[in-house]
Amino acid sequence: MEEFLERSTQFIEQSGWLAPLFFILLHVFRQIFFIPVLLVCLVGGYLFGTFYGSLYSMIGLTTVSLVFYGLIHLFPMMREKLGGLKKRFLKEQHRLTLPQMMIMRLIPFIHFHLVSLYLMETTRDLKSYVKKSFLVSIPPAIVYTAFGDMIHDLPLTGTIIFAIFMIILFLFFRKKRTNISWNDFFQPKNS
Question: Are 29 and 58 in contact (CB under 8 A)?
Fold first, then answer.
């Protein structure tokens, strides 16, 4: 994986004006090689600077979401497996807000496509899915590109503090209202 990332970085550096295109394609193909989003965005910051690296990462992450949208319709089995993961992680009754999904994309150990699946299930068409996917990709692209080295080089205590901060933000942006159905509240007694 490290060797692939190193070769990709050298190739992109030597590509001239095609470098942004190759970097966006690196985002698309990173999932095949199990390269985390964090590393690719770090490379973007290193190669293009914070502004352009963030911009190219936003485009790349949105493109990944678009490819996922197409693949999930071609391979329903993939949707079932991710749906099981979503049920375990999010539960059925939990409704996420857009800021919560943005924060989820910032947390490295949450599967990227878990958020994409949730977005797909909560949008009505491809246009609204792409729009929300772009919005949800903004925080990780900017944070990982601009502050990636700081996050990556934090000591264990710093990483734990950052994770706790992310969880508090996640809880802060949740919807404040919960609906409980009559049957859930008054469950029949089994004798």
Answer: no
Give me the phi and psi of 56, to 5 degrees please.
Answer: -65, -35
pLDDT digits (tens, 9 = 90+) for 53-87: 899 999 999 999 999 999 988 988 888 888 877 77
Neighbours of 71 (CB within 10 A): 12
The two three-digit tokens of residue 184, written as one number: 């859930």
Measured between its terminal Cα atoms, the distance across the chain in Å is 57
What's at 68, amino acid-wise? F
Q: Is the pTM above the cut of 0.90?
A: no
Chain-centre distance of CA 110, in angstroms? 7
Backbone angles phi, psi at 32, to 5 degrees: -70, -35
pLDDT digits (tens, 9 = 90+) for 125-134: 999 999 999 9
Under 8 Å between Cβ of 173 and 100: yes
